[in-house]
Design goal:
By secondary structure, the chain is of the alpha+beta class. Helices cover about 35% and strands about 30% of the residues. The chain contains ten helices and ten strands. About 35% of the residues are buried.
Length: about 300
């Protein structure tokens, strides 16, 4: 089966990781049997994983940041330190002016400062440059928009979230058996969690060494309003993440594709926009950590 079908299926699963094979077949215009075989092959290869991610606000993580790190000499020790901290959800070796990038999610600005101070204290760290997210515009890695104010989760909801964090496509029959309810009730609970933006279930492409699916990070400097640029990015295939930031860039984005040629074409489209005054890119060479789940703290009545 062609890489083109895989690319379409991954894009569909990034929107809805629990979409049925019939729904996926309708979206990509391919036979259900072919879709089922390709999805199972992608998941079985380990190149794609379906994960559930609770909204950062539900986890008490209100400060999100993109951190670029320049290292003197080998980066192994710094990579180990970044991967070991719960604050990091993503750590990657990159090309360009910096050696590593990481995404940190913490409960407060003070805790972010502490995490950065510990990073700066690493002997081989030469420079740390931080971009603070003001809001996430588009992401396949988390629920879109702010957590709805009327969201209330109970112990059963938390158990469902934890089960889906381990297996985002666990059937409703299996979920129901684990939490002690009917499959229809489990389906309704999961639907409510997704609709309220408490939970997002999506495909994550594993881009470790040897992966044939390259990814590119980019920082955009804009002139004027960003609405046209963010709307353009939201409709552009291959855009996995867009965040407004405070720092050396106005927007930070992640692009994924099945070839470097496709990535180049996307960057050329971005540079053609009148509002884009500057575009800085970095290739993700090896992803060391990509883990967006985090245990939800229980409150004692």
């Amino acid at each position: 089966m062609s890489d083109g079908l895989d690319t379409q299926l991954i894009a569909a699963l990034q929107q809805d990781g629990r979409a049925s094979y019939s729904d996926l077949a309708a979206r990509v215009g391919a036979p259900r049997t072919a879709v089922s075989a390709r999805v199972q092959a992608l998941l079985g290869s380990g190149d794609v994983e379906i994960v559930a991610v609770a909204h950062p606000q539900l986890l008490g993580l209100t400060t999100l940041a993109h951190v670029s790190v320049a290292v003197s000499g080998p980066a192994d020790e710094v990579v180990g330190a970044l991967c070991a901290t719960d604050a990091s959800v993503f750590v990657s070796a990159v090309s360009g002016a910096y050696d590593l990038v990481a995404e940190l999610r913490v409960p407060s600005d003070r805790e972010l400062y502490g995490a950065l101070a510990r990073l700066r204290a690493q002997p081989r760290v030469r420079e740390v440059n931080t971009l603070l997210y003001t809001d996430v515009v588009t992401s396949v890695f988390m629920p879109q928009g702010p957590l709805r104010s009327d969201v209330h989760v109970d112990e059963t909801d938390l158990r469902l979230i934890e089960l889906l964090e381990r297996d985002g496509r666990m059937p409703f029959v299996g979920l129901a058996a684990r939490v002690g309810m009917s499959p229809s009730a489990a389906r309704a609970r999961v639907s409510r969690l997704v609709t309220s933006r408490a939970l997002h279930v999506a495909a994550v492409v594993r881009r470790g060494a040897g992966s044939g699916r390259p990814a590119l990070g980019a920082g955009l400097n804009l002139g004027g309003d960003d609405e046209h640029v963010t709307a353009f990015l939201a409709a552009l295939p291959g855009v996995e993440f867009v965040a407004r930031t405070v720092g050396r860039f106005d927007l930070v984005i992640t692009l994924g594709a099945d070839s470097t040629t496709r990535l180049h074409r996307i960057t050329e489209q971005l540079k053609a926009l009148d509002e884009v005054r500057g575009l800085t890119t970095w290739a993700h060479l090896e992803v060391f950590k990509e883990h967006y789940s985090r245990g939800i703290a229980r409150t004692t009545p």
